[in-house]
Amino acid sequence: MLSVELHTHSDRSYDGRDPIDMLLTQAEAIGLDAVAVTDHDQIDASLKASEMAPEYGLVGIPGAEITSTAGHVLGLGIEERVPSGLTFTETIERIHDLGGIAVVPHPFQGARHGVAPNVSYEQLARADAIEVYNSRLLTGRSNRKAKRFAANRELPMTAGSDAHIAEMVGQAITHVGSGQRTIDGILQAIADGETTVVGQRTPWRISLRQAGGAAKRRLKYAAEDLISDTGRGLL
Asked: Model's pTM, two decimal places?
């Protein structure tokens, strides 16, 4: 079984703090086999992380957390950016066209852009896998609901730390039963349901720190966009 972290964010995400080398260092330190950097609607840092991963003894899985009109979708194994603003179904189709798999993170957490409030269960079941354990939780109710849904639909299950700072990488991992320590081998095993999930809750102090840092970074990016638009005469 390979220990895989499928949901992390670098400083290229509007709400991420740390550069990819810190994420990879943490993944190596805790003995993971593979890690995916899944920045919001960005792909460049993930591609770089995948290239650097072997230096840390890791398999680097390229991907992104894509903002569909219904909410967030993880595209794993993709090497091109999928645009935000597509429908849920279009987003999944685009991921498949790029040779990746579509995993729905925190589907029942509407406040965190979970898709379940905005799609039918039949649509949700078109995903290749469902993230049934997300470390950034309050009560665990949404995780339990995701697990019941996946079990009832016989869908593959994954976990993710949803780390926005390096020290949270590995809070939730997916054990993948792949005989191949490769990107393709790992993704195929996930799609085949050869997974078990292990996780623990992100400490509330860390969650508050992540949230506070994310709010500051959102303001920074908004200010940079405003300055850029002003300079181009758009305002």
From this structure: 0.88
